[in-house]
C-alpha cells in the first residue's frame, strides 16, 4: 500500500519510527515531513500536503502525528474528501474505515506510546470500507456538506 505520513515537531520522533516500521513491513511511503526536528514548525505545513495527496490519489491512506493529534485532525479535515480522525483505540481504528471510510488516521505522540501507535496504524491499514448501503448513504451526506449543499 502507498501511504503518506506527516508530522510536526511534536510527532517527529514517532513519525520517524513509524516510517522505518512501515517500510520494513513492505509499504511504500511518501514522507511529507517534517524532515528534521524544528520546535518552531507548524503542523498544517505538513498535514495539508498529506491530505491533498490522499484526495488526489497520490497515496491511498494517510498518517498524521502531532503532540495531541487534535491539530493534525482539524487541519486534515479542512481538505475536501479527507475523512480524518484522532484515534486512540483499536475499535475506532478499524470501524472508522469500515463504516466511515476514514482515509487519514491522526495520532497524538504525547497521548499514545509508540507500541500502541504502531498497533493502531496496523489496524487502520488492514481495515476496508464495508460499502454497506447505510454507510454509503452517510458518506453521501458528508460529501454534500463539503460541497456546501444541505444534506438530505
Mean pLDDT: 96
The CATH topology name reads Ribose 5-phosphate Isomerase B, Chain: A
CATH level 4 superfamily: Sugar-phosphate isomerase, RpiB/LacA/LacB
Q: How are the strands of the biggest sheet laid out side by side? A: 2-1-3-5-4
Radius of gyration in whole Å, from Cα?
Answer: 15 Å
Terminal-residue CA separation: 34 Å
Low-confidence segments: none
**Helix-residue proportion:** 40-55%
**Total domains, how many?**
1
Please provide a brief summary of the model:
The chain is of the alpha/beta class and 152 residues long. It has one domain: Ribose 5-phosphate Isomerase B, Chain: A, CATH 3.40.1400.10. It contains 6 helices and 5 strands, in the order βαβαβαβαβαα.
Summarize the structure in words.
With 152 residues, the protein is an alpha/beta fold. It has six helices and five strands, in the order E-H-E-H-E-H-E-H-E-H-H. Strand 4, helix 4 and strand 5 form a beta-alpha-beta unit. Helix 2 crosses helix 3. The longest helix has 14 residues. The mean pLDDT is 96.
Q: What brief labels describe this structure?
A:
5-stranded parallel beta sheet; Ribose 5-phosphate Isomerase B, Chain: A; 46% helix; globular; alpha/beta; 152 residues
Strand and helix layout:
Elements: E1 2-7, H1 12-24, E2 28-31, H2 44-55, E3 61-66, H3 70-76, E4 84-86, H4 90-100, E5 104-108, H5 114-126, H6 133-146
Helix pairs in contact: 2-3, 4-5
